[in-house]
Each structure stands twice: as C-alpha cells, then as structure tokens.
Amino acid sequence: MPDLKDKIVLITGAAGAIGSAIAAAVKAQGGVVIASDLKAGNGIDHALDVTAEADWQRVTAAVAQTHGRLDGLVNAAGIAVVGSIEKTDFATWRRVLSINLDGTFLGCKYSFPLLRKKGGSIVNLSSVLGLVGSSNLAAYTASKGGVSLLTKSVALNGARYKPPVRCNAVCPAFIAGAMVDDIAAGGGKRDPQAVHQKLANDIPLARLGEPAEVASLCVYLLSDEASFITGADVPIDGGLTAR
Ligand SMILES: NC(=O)c1ccc[n+]([C@@H]2O[C@H](COP(=O)([O-])OP(=O)(O)OC[C@H]3O[C@@H](n4cnc5c(N)ncnc54)[C@H](O)[C@@H]3O)[C@@H](O)[C@H]2O)c1
After folding, report:
1. Is 243 part of any domain?
2. Is residue 241, in this structure, part of any structural domain at all?
3. What DSSP character marks residue 123?
4. Distance 203 CA to ligand 1 centre (A)
5. Could you count the other beta carbons within 10 Å of the beta carbon of residue 42?
6. Best of 11, 12, 18 to mutate for ligand 1, by most ligand atoms within 8 A of CB?
7. Same domain flag for 191 and 133
8. What is the CATH number of the domain that holds 53?
9. How far apart are the C-alpha atoms of 66 and 238, rounded to whole Å?
10. Is residue 182 domain-resident?
C-alpha cells in the first residue's frame, strides 16, 4: 500500500461504511485523519453537516489553526434515495442534490486554500451512477453525474498550482453496507435478500464490493504514487461498466 506518512486528510461521512474504511486505511498508511460526520464522538473529530457552509468554515478554520494545511480531502458523505423521475418529489430531489453535490462543492471550495499550501489530493465519492443512468435512482444519478464533472473542473483549476492540487472521483458499484441495505429494503416493499442477489448478479465479478476495496483505491489516489492522475473518474465496480 502507498505511503501516506504525515499526510493530513480530512474525511466527511467518516462514520459510514466507506468513510470509516477510508479513515482506517489512511491511518494504517501513516496518515493523520481528521474524521467528520453529522455527529462528533466515537472516533469522529468534528460534527460537520456537509450542506452547512458555516460548518465548513468552522472546521476548516480549526484545521488551519491546528495543522496549517491539508494534504488530502475525501468527500465521502452521501445519501441514496430510491425513486424514478415519476416517483421522486422535489423535496427529495433537493435533499439528495444538497448532500451529494452541494456538500462536495462546499468541501472542495473550503478545503482548497489549505490544500493549495503544499499541494494535495481530493477524492470525491461519485458512483457508477455518475457514469451511467439508473431508472429508479433519478436524484442520486444526477447528483453523482454532477460530482464527476465538478471533479474535472476542480482538477483543472488545481493543475494550475505548483505543486498541484489533484482531484479525482472514485466510482464504486454496489458496496456492502447501510446504503445498499437501504436501497435493497426499498421502503420495506421488497425482499432485501433477493435485491442483494440481483445487484450481485448484475456485476461480472458476481458479488458486491467491500468498503476496504474502495479505501485502498482512495489511499492510492491520495498518495504521491498517483502524482500524474487528476480529473479522472475511476470505476471500482467488478466490471459493471465494462459492458
Ligand atoms: N455503498 C455503495 O454501494 C456506494 C456505491 C457508490 C458510491 N457510494 C458513495 O460512497 C459514499 C459513502 O457511502 P457509504 O456506503 O459509506 O454510505 P453510508 O450510508 O454507510 O455512510 C454515509 C455517511 O454519510 C453521512 N452523512 C449523511 N448526510 C450527511 C451530511 N449532511 N453531512 C455529513 N455527513 C452526512 C452519514 O451520517 C453516514 O455516516 C457516498 O457518497 C455514496 O454515495 C456508495
């Protein structure tokens, strides 16, 4: 695994399946994790609602005071709500876009001055549904498409600095954890086990991914080993988007 010794990495959604796996992997590679989620405590350093501009201002000010810089940012906070265009109400649309897309925008924006100090790396959690559509996750798909293209804009801006601020999106297919459990439950109307199996059957490697597998990719993108990779959408999907 690549070395992250002494790299200071802020992670949102760090209490979640993927965020907590990333926090563990960054620490294991020698990095200094600043973990954030909706509530502090239990290994979470800062309460940070990614949709709240004032929270970003407070947390990045605290990071500036304690560390003086950031070397990495992982925007992992996110929600998925099942619903086609016909079944998604406007309030749900706005909530999903607010957390997944506004939250990523605010994270990139407020962390950028700290990342610019010595160069750094942003990893945004997009999804395979930022690359291809899904009929029954209309708001989620739109939010992740936005994350993937915001990533390219941030990357092109970050490339103008020396050392650069790199920015990449990781695009997982279904990863075991609460989010897929919620999608599988689908409001309690479907058999979650059968939905899990169907999701796995759609993947050429015939299984769901593991949070630790996504974390390994994030560690690589945060590290200096990935120094020529920026503006990329990196699928981690068991071959789902290969066909
Ligand atoms: N699980 C998957 O199959 C999958 C696939 C592709 C992409 N992703 C993306 O990966 C990221 C992490 O997903 P996960 O599986 O760990 O989900 P999860 O539900 O396990 O964790 C999400 C975390 O985000 C936090 N969160 C929600 N709203 C927030 C807000 N307003 N401010 C701050 N934190 C908030 C939650 O408290 C939770 O800890 C998400 O962006 C998700 O869209 C997940």
Report:
1. no
2. no
3. E
4. 21
5. 9
6. 18
7. no
8. 3.40.50.720
9. 40
10. yes
Task: Please check the confidence at residue 223 and state whether its pLDDT lies above 70.
Answer: yes
List helix spans (H) across 32-102.
53-66, 90-97
Instruction: Round to whole Å and give the CA distance between 122 and 117.
Output: 14
Nearest 5°: phi and psi at 111?
Answer: -85, -20
As for ligand 1, residues whose beta carbon falls within 6 Å of it are 12-13, 15-19, 37-38, 48-51, 76-80, 99, 125, 127, 172, 174-175, 177-180
Q: Which residues contact 228 (CB under 8 A, 6 or more apart)?
A: none
Q: Which member of 110, 140, 161, 220 is catalytic?
A: 140
Please name the residue whose Cα sits nearest to atom 25 of ligand 1: 13
Residues 76 and 96 occupy one common structural domain: yes
In sequence order, the 6+-apart residues with CB closer than 8 A to the CB of 200 are 174, 206, 207, 208
Look up 220 and say whether it is catalytic.
no
Q: Closest ligand 1 atom to the C-alpha of 19?
A: 16
Q: In angstroms, what is the span from residue 100 Cα to ligand 1's centroid? A: 9
Structure tokens at 37: 């989620």
pLDDT (0 to 100) of residue 188: 65
pLDDT tens-digit map of 163-180: 999 999 999 999 999 999
At a CB cut-off of 8 Å and minimum separation 6, what does 104 contact? 50, 75, 124, 147, 150
Q: What is the pTM of this model?
A: 0.98
Q: Is 110 within 8 Å of 57 (Cβ atoms)?
A: yes
Angle between helices 138-158 and 103-116 (to 10 degrees): 20
